[in-house]
Amino acid sequence: MIALCGLPAAGAPLAAAGALLPPTAAPTPCTATVFPLAGRIAPTRRRGPGLLLSGGGVESMPDIGLAWMRAHFGTSARGRAGNVVVLRASGGREYTDRFYRVGRFASVREILLPPCLSRTAVAASAVGAVGRADAVIFAGGDQANYARWTGGDLLRAVKAVYARGGIVGGGSAGLAIQGAFAYDSVAADRLHADDFTVHTRDAVANPLEAEISFSKLFAWPPLRRTMTDTHFVERDRFGRTVAFLARAAHDGLATPPLYALGVDRGSVVLVEPNGMATVRIAPKSGGAYLVRMSKPPVLVLGQSLRTEVEAVHFGRDGARFDLARKAPNAHWRRVMVDGARIPPYDRDPYR
User: Taking the alpha carbons of 286, 110, 67, 104 in that order, is the dihedral positive or negative?
Assistant: First the structure.
C-alpha cells in the first residue's frame, strides 16, 4: 500500500490545497509514504557520477555538501537543477525543505519505506521516482532496514542513477551501506531486542562475535575493497572499524589490502567522477580517516584482536585525496590495535 502524503485516503475529507505535513509527521506503519514534492521535476544535465558520504545524519552535513551536489547539475533559467530523491526506512519528511532551499534543486522528494514492506512493495513504491532522479540520498537510522533491499529492484534503480552520471550517498546509516562490504547490524538486531550497537570495546575483545555481520549493497568504483563507517570520532569507532576489516578478511569478503573510510559527524566526503575526494568539515567535527589493513590477522573465536594498521587523518576543511587509488597525499601513520588493552590503541588514532 502506498500513502501519498498530502492527499486524502478514500472517503476522507479534503485538506486545504497545498497543505504539507509537518517535518516529523509519523505515517501509518507498514505503508510506503511518498511525501509532498518540493519544486517540480525538470530535465537535468548531469556532469558525471559522484558520491556524497556524510558521517552523521545528512542534517549535520555542512551546507557546502548540497552546493557541491548542485554544481554537478546543469543550469536553468530559474537557477535550479537536479531532481533529488531521499530514501528512508524510518522518520518523516525531514530533509526536503532544507535541500530545496539551500541546494536550489529543481525538485526534492522524500520516500519512507518501512522495514515491514516486502522488496516487491519497496520497489513498487520508489523505483519510478528513483528512475527520474539525478541524485539519491539515503537517510540515517538502522542500516539493517536498508540491507533488506539487497538484490532488489530498488537498489538496481539506484545503481542506474550513478551509471547515468548522477550522485548517490547518505548520512549515518545511509553512509554505512555505501562501502564494498557494509556492517549491516542485521545479526545484532536479531540477537538483541533493544537497539544494540557494536562498540569498539566489544569488537576488539572478540572480532568473531555473532553480532558482527555484513551485506554487499553497492560496488562503487572509488570504494573498491573499502568499507565505510560513521560518527567516527564522536563514538570512538577506530577500533571497531579495524575489527570489521579483520572480520571481513576472515569471512572472505575482500582480498587484502582492505581499506576503511571513517567519517565523523559534521563532516562529509565528496567524491568526484575520477575518484578524487574532498573533505568538508563543520566546526568541532573530526573530519575523515582512511585506514589500510595490509596483512589481516588470524582470528580465533573468543580471542581479542591484535593487529597493526595504517591510517591517515584528514582534519583540515577542504583536504583532498585520491580515494579511488587510496593515495592520501599524506604520511600513513601506524597504529597498533590490541583488544587486551584499555584503551586498545598504542597511540591516539584521532590526533
Answer: negative
C-alpha cell at 23: 517535518
* Length of the chain as a residue count: 351
Alpha helices in the chain (DSSP H): 64-71, 96-103, 119-131, 143-147, 153-163, 173-176, 186-191, 200-205, 238-250
Contact in structure between 65 and 268 (CB atoms under 8 Å): yes
CB 316, CB 349: distance < 8 Å: no
Q: pLDDT of 173-205, one tens digit each?
A: 999 999 999 999 999 999 998 888 999 999 999
Conformation bin of residue 45: beta by default, left when phi > 0, alpha when psi is -120 to 50: beta
302: left (phi over 0), alpha (psi -120 to 50) or beta: left
- Which regions of 35-98 does DSSP assign to beta strands (E)? 38-39, 50-54, 83-88
Q: Evaluate whether 133 touches 45 at the Cβ level (below 8 Å).
A: no
Among 27, 36, 40, CA closest to 1: 27
DSSP β-ladder status, 167-171 and 214-215: unpaired
Measured CA to CA in angstroms, residue 16 lies from 19, 20, 37, 117, 229 at distances of 6, 9, 16, 30, 43
| Residue 326 cell numbers, joined | 587510496
| Dihedrals phi, psi of 312, to nearest 5 degrees | -130, 135
What distance in Å separates the CA atoms of residue 311 and residue 159, rounded to the nearest whole number? 30
Task: Give 19's pLDDT tier (boundaries 50, 70, 90).
Answer: very low
- Kindly tell me the sign of the dihedral angle through the C-alpha atoms of 57, 63, 69, 70: positive
List, for residues 297-323, the tens digit of each pLDDT value.
999 999 999 999 999 999 999 999 999
According to DSSP, the β-strands at 276-281 and 267-271 are antiparallel
Set of cell numbers at residue 131: 528512475
